[in-house]
Structures are given as structure tokens and as C-alpha cells.
Write a structure and sequence with these properties.
- The complex is a heterotrimer.
- Chain A is mostly helical.
- Chain A has helices at residues 2-7, 10-53, 60-67, 69-102, 105-120, 123-134, 139-146, 160-184, 188-196, 201-229, 233-238, 246-255, 260-285, 288-293.
- Chain A has two domains: 1-53; 59-293, MetI-like fold (Orthogonal Bundle).
- In chain A, helix 4 (69-102) runs antiparallel to helix 5 (105-120), helix 8 (160-184) packs across helix 10 (201-229) and helix 10 (201-229) runs antiparallel to helix 13.
- Chain A is flat and about 60 Å long.
- The two termini of chain A are 16 Å apart.
- Chain B is an alpha+beta fold.
- In chain B, the strands form four sheets. Chain B has a six-stranded mixed sheet, with helices on both faces.
- In chain B, strand 16 (302-313) and strand 17 form a beta hairpin.
- The longest helix of chain B is centred in the middle third of the chain and has 18 residues, at 173-190.
- Chain C is of the alpha/beta class.
- Chain C has two domains: 29-130 and 258-304, D-Maltodextrin-Binding Protein, domain 2 (3-Layer(aba) Sandwich); 136-255 and 322-347, 3-Layer(aba) Sandwich (D-Maltodextrin-Binding Protein, domain 2), CATH 3.40.190.10.
- Helix content of chain C is 41%, strand content 17%.
- Chain C has 13 helices and nine strands.
- In chain C, strands 1, 2, 3, 4, 5, 6, 7, 8 and 9 form a nine-stranded mixed sheet that branches.
- In chain C, helix 2 (41-58) links the parallel strand 1 and strand 2.
- In chain C, helix 2 runs antiparallel to helix 11.
- The chains are: A mainly alpha, B alpha+beta, C alpha/beta.
Chain lengths: 294, 363, 349
């Protein structure tokens, strides 16, 4: 661009520059509604949140959030659950996405219906459905007892397991769709090429298919991880109160104690640590060719 | 990368049949590619050439028949265990790997020691003149360069067979011709046994040691390019490879190694033929447009009067469409010569051919 | 257009004329007042028990809005633009609104609450209903009569084995722990947190679910996830009505109030007071109780409801004397500290 402009006569260079400026302005005009929307519904509330947390003119809420054992433990537990949920949805979602991306149209339709089902159901209904299934006298335990596979009901509900099951179920579509999308874009010839070049099945997967679908994995894990961090109803209901999530604490501070400052500080800490984790994961997993394209 | 393998058959297909549901993609196909030979599978789309390639590469299992590679039966062997170097239509370079990683991939899969990999990759890239591009990603290369990488990747591990699946389709004409010559040079230099798949007859004629013409899942003819062109086995081959004038008639008499053929309108022509058909048999006579002579050229036994319908200037030659008796049209091709005015539509001209320039095919 | 305005104006004059004729000292009647509450089933009950008859009596239309929102109330009062004539208050807001000066006092000359228990006669908020956090048990596991009859027995896992459920919140639980530890009903407050948490340590391993929503404990009992649970009486009443093998033990129940108040600076505050007065009638409260399961506080309410239903009400005289009134003042002052300690305690392995 610069080279071209330099060799052009001045007037023409001006024209090029002007045209360039106009196209930038045009793009700006086109994206204005989106920018305004982002500003109003995202940037401003975020700023306000931060403002609330330092409203008293001190960083005391932050000191409390970052030093008190209770909050550190809850942060740690929240991240641990989010990580566990992310790993589980990935392990379950990847094969499902592969199935959907490679099967016949009919099975694809059936598969998508199943994946979408939790999407169409309210989170409360889904959660209560799990309570019916997983309880001590729930369908799962009763079936296993009747089959004689167990003698005591399994503790599937009101603990870490219950929260994991419920959250994985709710979040699975968020993992499956981006991965499915990435898989659809993989050229089947690349897989054939790798096979033809002597790669056994696992090597084709590890060296070719996985890296090529990594972008989807990355999008899926990011989405699920971040959504997990903010989870609220499912852990409260399926965790039996034993699984602490930071969102519950933040909500309590706002609703019960009107403690906007401290809630703001907790939120900002959550946001900051989320960004750090996000950055780390991306640095680790970001496929190289994605940068090469630009 | 040097071969030093003794002459013999590197690839053989025996009575291979492949069906997709009710559709037969390959019917009883037999084929042998000799060591160091470049054999082209030529056919229109839907002729079964891609299926043939998939069966050879191991991506498809045939219903019947066997595939022999380097002397062993590989019919049921997975692609990874066949040792075939393949260049895909769209190159199928791994987009997340650099040029070096792409070319090293088949060697790594064969657990070649690291140092040897470096060496072989460097040599392969030198062969395709891409030294210095090792760290690039495929997206940072031109189409021609991508193809060279694909080629280097396909030959770096000394495969028994090189499979080329329409590799020049995506290139513009000039680059395509350049790459064709380069592939030919490499193939000869390394003595690579090569199976080349294309629908482009010109390309097939330029590159091949032998050509197998396919249609509807069958091989119509296998032979050297000039054989295919000059002596097509049947109407399909004649029509698909190059332009041709086909004249239908009935064998009438033989004399002095010539066959006299009676046309529908009663006219008679003489054709030289090694296979002499029975009198009365239906035959077709094939004459290539460049073998037709205009009256001014002198000698002409089989001569008719024609009228120019259309004149097309092709740079090195003129192509004329002539109307001849019996309501037929013939194509004639004449080289452009200095001082020679082309014929114009409406001109009357005598046209004919020597008996040896025509080819007799079964009706 | 103009003409219609004139007619409407005339109507107004006529109405206020009637009003003046009835009671000279009364401020003019507005055409409507706004009552803000939780909405849902409660809105229907309010309308049926109180609003319809109030409208008919006074000719003032009641516009009902929802939901209750402390932040909005504060913003309204602070900006001086108060839309609500009367508003319901969220559970923990009753003390807070008084402390922050967001509400008018209840006028004893208009609202007669002499029939209310003294705990339900706050200066600043009007108690509209009562509910209680009580002990509930499965009748097929513990025969009524030989069921846990006190918090001490709830704590006794040897005599009454089985899974229990408590609310995931310190409120009520600290009180129950103290009662289980032998503290008499009238000596609960101020709560000795150390003592309460120490007693809670004992029951912690036997609590399988710390519930968070009001519907949970009844459901847990129905599903037999637990055999003993605490919960709000109305929720248990609901499943008992449907025939679930569940019963309530009122002993040691923790009574709380649903409250209404008049925002400071509300237009037509006088008519707000009049509405509260209308709502303080025990017969009307009985209608409300039958409709919703939560009775008004008037001690005579239970006389006017179905005698079979009356024993299921927290202010049924038999029940009332076994329970204690949850001290909102204490919780307003110590709630945050208690919640923090509760969260920490629950996380401790």
C-alpha cells in the first residue's frame, strides 16, 4: 500500500488516501449500532461495576476479596468446577461433534435434536429433571438397585458429582457447536493425505484432525469455562449447598446485604482471573495456521 | 530417493470391480504399470478414474479383483501401509504445518531418524526448487509452490508408486505447462513409477509413457500416446482423444492391402488396414483433421468436393468446417503458411486423404 | 376531546364532594392508588381478599404492580418521585427501610392493630401475613406422636436416624441450634454465635442437602431424599394437602412476617393508610389465608377459616405459643457477619 502510494503522483495518492479514509468511515458507520450496543450493554456496566468497587475511595473491598480465606477458597472451588466441567464437556462433546459432522443426514437430524433439547428447556426444569433422575430414590439408583448392581443408592445428587452432571448437561451444546463447526471445515482430503503418507489412525487424529479442529475446541472450552464460572442455579440445587460458587456469594452480597462495593470487587477479581486463564489457554492451544492466514 | 529397482511390474490391477449401490464404478478393470513408467488414466468425469485411484490408494475396497503393489497383494491393506506417494487435486497440504513439517510428515510416520529426516527433506525441497521456503506455511505460498511442496511430500519417502490426481487443474495455463514438464523431468530422473489421473487429453499426450482411456468404469484402450491418437480402438477413444472425422460405411472389397469401403451414398473410399474386416461388415473410418488434404496438395485418391462453412484461425493453423456430399461435415486443419491466403466460407474445394492416413475401426 | 375532559373533571368534583360529605377532615380522594407487591398468586389473593372490596367501598381504583424491589424504592424516595402508594417489602428489608428512613410511620389512628400480636405492631411497617420456618417429617418413617418434637430431638440422630435438610443460610438455623442446645425460647437473642455454630457442627454430617429455594425441602421429603427438614409452613401445607405422608411439628418454629409499608413522600399516603386499615380486618385476612395458606396476623383470623385448615396456620393459638418470633432487628445488625461465618463454616471440611 505505502509503496503504491509513493510511486503515484501526488494527486492520485491523495485520491487513494481519501478513498481509503472514506472506506474506513463507511465501515465505522456500518458498525456504529454494534459499537453503541457494546458500549451501552457491556462497557458501561463493566465500568460502573469497577466504579462501585472503588466507590468508597479505598481498595478495601479488594483487600477483603483477595486475602480472606473464605473468598479465596470459593474462587478456587469455582475455578476447579469450571475446569472439571470444561474437561468433561470436551471429552463428551468432541466425539459427539465428530459423530454429527460425519454421519448421515438422518442421524445428524436426530443427533442435533438431542443436543438441542436442553437448549429448549428452561434451566430450572432441566435441573429438576436431574433431581428426579439422580436422587437416592431416583430413576438411576432405583434401576441399579433393581438390577442388583448396587446394594446402597449411589450419592449422585447434592454433591460435586451432581453439580458436574447437571452443569455438563447444560453446557454440552456450547462445546459441541463450535467443535462441530470446525470439523465441518476440515477437508476430508487432508485426512486421506495423512493416511496415504503412512499415518496410522491415532497419528492422523493427533497430528492432523485435532490441530485442525483446535479452533473449535478453543472456542468451545472458552465458552464453557466462562459460562461455568458464572453458574448459579444448577450448583445451588444439585450441589446440596456443598459446592460453593462465587456467583452465589456475589448474588448474596448484592441482594441480601446491598454490598455493591464488595460484590463489585469480587466481580472484578473474577473477571480479571477469567481473563488471565483465557489468555493462558489461548497461548497454549492457539493453532499456528490461524495466525498465518492473516 | 534413487530407485535402483529392477524392471518389473510395480502396480497391477486384476479384474477389479467396484460398485456404489446399483451403480458400477469399475467393471473388471485390469492394468499393469511397469517400473519407472508413467501411466495415465484418462477419462471424462464419471468414467471411474477417481474410483480407480481410490482403490489403488486404499481409500476404497473393491468388491472383486486384486491390487498388487511391488509384487504383493495389497487389496485389503490400509492406505497407511501401502507406501504410495500421492498428490491431491487441491494438494491437501496440512495448513497448520510449515513446508518442512509437511514434507517431513511421511518420514516421521516411518520413524526415520531425525538427522536423516533433515537430510531427506532438504534434498526433496531442492529437487522441487523450494530450498529456502522451509519455514513458510502453505497459505503463504503460490499455487505452483504449493504443488511443489505436495510433490516433495509425495516422493520424499521413496514410495513404490506416485499417484497424481489431476494435480494441474488449479493452475493457469502457462504454469500448468511448466509444471507438467517439471513433473515429467522429476519422474524420469528418479525413475518413479507413476499413475497419473486426468481428464485432459492434451496433458495425457504430453506426459505419458502409456495412456489408459476409461469410460463407464471400463478401460477402453491402453497404449502409447501416439498409438492412442493414431489408432484409437473405438469410436469413444477416437472422439475423446483429439478431434476426428468419422465416416461410417460397409467393407466392400480388398485389394493390395487396401480395403474398399462403400459409404451410404454409394461413394467408395480406400483405407489401409492391418485388420481386414469381412466384406459387408459395418466399419467406421477415422481421419484426423490435420491428415485431410485440400486439393492443391496434389495426390489424393479419396477425394470429394466440399464447401467451406466456417474458417477458424488458431494461430499456428486454420481450422475449416467443410460440407461434403451426403450431408456430412468434415473438419480440416491446415498449418498457417506465409503467402498462403486462407479459404473463406463459400469457397469450393476438393478434399481427400491418403489411404494410409485413415484408420479403420470396428462399427 | 375538550368536552370529555370537562365531563371527567366534573366527575371528580362530584366524587370528592361525596367524600367531604362523609368525613370533613379527610384529604381528597384520588382516582387511583398504586400498590406494589410480589405479583403472581399473591396478587390474586390480595385482590380477592382486600382490593375489590376496598375499591367498592371508597371508589378508589387500585393499580397493582410488581415485583418488590428495594433498589427501586430507595431511588423513588431519594428522587422524590414516588409512584407507589403502598409497597410490599422483601423479607430482610423491613428493618432496613425504617433505619434508612424510606417509609412513613403507620398511623395508629387509622390502622387499628389491637388484634395483632405485639410482635406484629411495628411503628414503621405493616405486618400483612405470618409464616413460620418449621420442622417437617415423613409420617411413614416417624409415626406422629413418636416423631421428633423439638430441635433437640431433630439433633438426636441416634433416636431419629436419617438424612436431614436445613436451609443454606444462617437465619433460623442459628436459633434452632441454640434451642437444641437447651436455650429457652425467650433467651435466644442476642444469639451466641460461637455456641450456635458449635452445636451446628454436630448436625452437619447428617445434613445431606442445604436447601436454597423454598420449594426444595417439601420436594426432598416427598422424594424421600431426606426424612427430616426445615422449611416454610406454606410449602409443607401445600404437599400435605395433596396427600404426601408429611407432617409439621410447630414446636420451636420461627415466625416471620410479610410486611407492607408506605414509602416516604408517597402521594395520597392517607389512602394508603386506609388500605392497610382495610387489610387489618380478621375476616378479610381469613379470605386471604384460605386463598394462599399464609394467614394475616390478626389473632382472630383462624376463627374465620375452615376449622380443618386452621391448625395448619402458624397463628393458630396452639401453634403460636410453641414458636418464637424471629428477631429482625438482630439479623439486620448481624446478618452480614453471620452469613460470612456461615459460608466459611459450610466450606470447612
Amino acid at each position: 500500500m505505502t509503496e503504491a502510494v509513493a510511486t503515484l503522483p501526488l494527486a492520485a495518492g491523495d485520491r487513494v488516501r481519501r478513498r481509503h479514509a472514506r472506506s474506513v468511515l463507511g465501515a465505522l458507520a456500518l458498525s456504529t449500532p454494534a459499537l453503541v450496543l457494546l458500549l451501552v450493554f457491556f462497557a458501561l456496566p463493566l465500568l460502573r461495576l469497577f466504579w462501585l468497587s472503588v466507590d468508597a475511595g479505598t481498595f478495601l473491598p479488594y483487600e477483603k476479596a483477595l486475602t480472606e480465606r473464605l473468598y479465596l477458597t470459593v474462587f478456587w472451588e469455582t475455578f476447579k468446577i469450571a475446569a472439571a466441567v470444561t474437561v468433561l464437556t470436551l471429552l463428551l462433546g468432541y466425539p459427539v461433534a465428530y459423530f454429527l459432522a460425519t454421519t448421515t443426514r438422518l442421524w445428524q437430524f436426530v443427533g442435533f435434536a438431542f443436543v438441542m433439547l436442553p437448549f429448549w428447556t428452561s434451566i430450572l426444569v432441566r435441573t429438576y429433571a436431574w433431581m428426579v433422575l439422580l436422587g437416592r430414590n431416583g430413576v438411576v439408583n432405583r434401576t441399579l438397585l433393581d438390577l442388583g448392581l448396587i446394594t446402597e443408592p449411589l450419592p449422585l445428587l447434592h454433591n460435586f458429582t451432581g453439580v458436574l452432571i447437571g452443569m455438563v448437561h447444560v453446557l454440552l451444546p456450547y462445546m459441541i457447536f463450535p467443535i462441530y463447526n470446525a470439523m465441518r471445515k476440515v477437508d476430508a482430503d487432508l485426512v486421506r493425505a495423512a493416511e496415504g503418507l503412512g499415518a496410522p489412525g491415532y497419528a492422523v487424529f493427533r497430528r492432523i484432525y485435532l490441530p485442525l479442529t483446535m479452533e473449535g475446541v478453543l472456542a468451545g472450552t472458552t465458552l464453557v469455562f466462562i459460562l461455568s464460572l458464572g453458574f448459579f442455579i444448577t450448583p445451588a440445587l444439585l450441589g446440596g449447598g456443598r459446592v460453593a460458587m462465587i456467583a452465589v456469594i456475589i448474588e448474596q452480597q448484592v441482594r441480601e446485604f446491598l454490598n455493591w462495593g464488595f460484590a463489585g470487587a469480587l466481580s472484578v477479581v473474577l473477571l480479571a482471573s477469567t481473563l488471565v486463564v483465557y489468555g493462558l489457554v489461548h497461548r497454549l492451544l492457539r493453532p499456528r495456521f490461524a495466525e498465518g492466514v492473516r | 530417493m534413487s530407485r535402483g529397482r529392477s524392471a518389473g511390474t510395480d502396480l497391477a490391477l486384476r479384474n477389479v470391480t467396484k460398485r456404489y449401490g446399483a451403480v458400477s464404478a469399475l467393471t473388471d478393470v485390469s492394468l499393469a504399470v511397469e517400473a519407472g513408467e508413467l501411466l495415465t488414466i484418462l477419462g471424462p468425469s464419471g468414467s471411474g478414474k477417481t474410483t480407480l485411484l481410490k482403490v489403488v490408494a486404499g481409500f476404497e475396497l473393491p468388491e472383486a479383483g486384486i491390487v498388487m503393489l511391488g509384487g504383493s497383494d495389497v487389496t485389503e491393506r490400509p492406505p497407511a501401509a501401502r507406501n504410495i506417494g500421492m498428490v491431491f487435486q487441491n494438494y491437501a497440504l496440512f495448513p497448520h504445518m510449515t513446508v518442512r513439517e509437511n514434507v517431513a510428515f511421511p518420514l516421521e510416520m516411518r520413524r526415520v531418524p531425525r538427522r536423516l529426516i533433515e537430510e531427506k527433506v532438504a534434498r526433496a525441497l531442492a529437487l522441487v526448487e523450494l530450498t529456502g521456503y522451509e519455514a513458510r506455511l502453505p497459505t503463504q505460498l503460490s499455487g505452483g509452490q504449493q504443488q511443489r511442496v505436495a510433490l516433495a511430500r509425495a516422493i520424499v519417502f521413496d514410495p513404490i508408486l506416485l499417484l497424481l490426481d489431476e494435480p494441474f487443474g488449479a493452475l493457469d495455463r502457462k504454469l500448468r505447462e511448466q509444471m507438467q514438464l517439471e513433473v515429467r523431468r522429476l519422474q524420469r530422473q528418479l525413475g518413479l513409477t507413476t499413475l497419473f489421473i486426468t481428464h485432459d487429453q492434451e496433458e495425457a499426450l504430453v506426459l505419458s509413457d502409456r495412456i489408459a482411456v476409461m469410460s463407464h468404469g471400463r478401460i477402453e484402450q491402453i497404449g502409447a500416446p501416439d498409438e492412442i491418437y493414431e489408432r484409437p480402438a473405438n469410436g469413444f477413444v477416437a472422439d475423446f482423444v483429439g478431434e476426428s472425422n468419422v465416416i461410417a460405411g460397409r467393407a466392400a472389397a480388398r485389394k493390395d492391402g487396401l480395403v474398399e469401403i462403400e459409404l451410404e451414398d454409394g461413394a467408395r473410399i480406400c483405407v489401409a488396414g492391418d485388420r481386414i474386416p469381412d466384406a459387408g461388415a459395418e466399419v467406421r473410418v477415422l481421419v484426423r483433421p490435420e491428415r485431410l488434404e485440400l486439393a492443391s496438395d496434389g495426390a489424393a485418391i479419396n477425394r470429394v468436393a466440399g464447401t467451406v462453412v466456417e474458417t477458424v484461425y488458431l494461430g499456428t493453423s486454420y481450422k475449416y468446417r467443410l460440407r461434403v456430399p451426403g450431408g456430412r461435415e468434415w473438419l480440416v486443419r491446415r498449418p498457417v503458411r506465409a503467402g498462403e491466403a486462407p479459404l473463406a466460407p463459400g469457397d469450393s474445394v476438393a478434399v481427400g486423404f491418403a489411404p494410409g492416413d485413415a484408420h479403420l475401426i470396428a462399427g | 376531546m375538550k368536552r370529555r375532559t370537562v365531563i371527567a373533571g366534573l366527575g371528580c368534583v362530584a366524587l370528592s364532594g361525596i367524600g367531604r360529605a362523609r368525613a370533613q377532615s379527610e384529604p381528597p380522594k384520588p382516582r387511583q392508588i398504586v400498590v406494589n407487591a410480589s405479583g403472581g398468586a399473591m396478587a390474586t389473593a390480595l385482590r380477592k381478599a382486600y382490593f375489590d372490596s376496598f375499591e367498592k367501598e371508597y371508589g378508589i381504583r387500585i393499580v397493582d404492580t410488581s415485583p418488590t424491589d428495594f433498589g427501586k424504592l430507595r431511588a423513588m424516595v431519594e428522587s422524590g418521585n414516588v409512584e407507589w402508594t403502598v409497597t410490599e417489602l422483601g423479607g430482610q428489608d423491613a428493618i432496613r427501610v425504617a433505619r434508612m428512613g424510606l417509609v412513613e410511620k403507620i398511623d395508629p389512628k387509622i390502622v387499628d392493630r389491637s388484634g395483632f400480636p405485639e410482635q406484629a405492631r411495628s411503628e414503621t411497617v405493616y405486618t400483612s401475613s405470618l409464616y413460620s420456618t418449621v420442622l417437617a417429617y415423613r409420617t411413614d418413617v416417624f409415626k406422629p406422636g413418636s416423631h421428633p418434637k423439638s430441635w433437640a430431638e431433630f439433633w438426636d440422630v441416634k433416636k431419629f436416624p436419617g438424612a436431614r435438610s436445613l436451609r443454606n443460610h444462617p437465619v433460623d438455623n442459628l436459633e434452632f441450634a441454640l434451642l437444641a442446645d437447651g436455650v429457652p425460647l425467650d433467651k435466644i437473642y442476642p444469639i451466641d454465635m460461637d455456641r450456635a455454630f458449635k452445636k451446628l457442627d454436630e448436625i452437619k454430617p447428617h445434613v445431606t442437602v442445604w436447601w436454597t429455594t423454598g420449594a426444595q425441602p417439601a420436594q426432598l421429603l416427598v422424594d424421600k431424599e431426606v426424612v427430616l427438614a426445615t422449611g416454610w409452613n406454606g410449602r409443607f401445607y401445600d404437599v400435605i394437602k395433596k396427600g404426601a405422608p408429611i407432617a409439621i411439628e410447630w414446636n420451636g418454629g420461627s415466625i416471620k412476617e410479610g410486611t407492607f409499608a408506605i414509602p416516604k413522600g408517597a402521594k395520597d399516603a392517607y389512602w394508603g393508610q386506609k388500605l392497610l386499615a382495610w387489610m387489618s380486618d380478621p375476616k378479610r385476612q381469613a379470605v386471604y389465608a384460605t386463598e394462599l395458606g399464609y394467614p394475616g396476623p390478626h389473632l382472630e383470623t383462624t376463627k374465620y377459616v375452615d376449622p380443618k385448615v386452621a391448625p395448619q396456620m402458624p397463628n393458630y393459638p396452639e401453634n403460636l405459643k410453641k414458636q418464637f418470633w424471629n428477631n429482625k432487628q438482630w439479623w439486620d445488625e448481624n446478618g452480614e457477619k453471620a452469613a460470612e461465618r456461615w459460608n466459611q463454616w459450610l466450606l470447612k471440611k
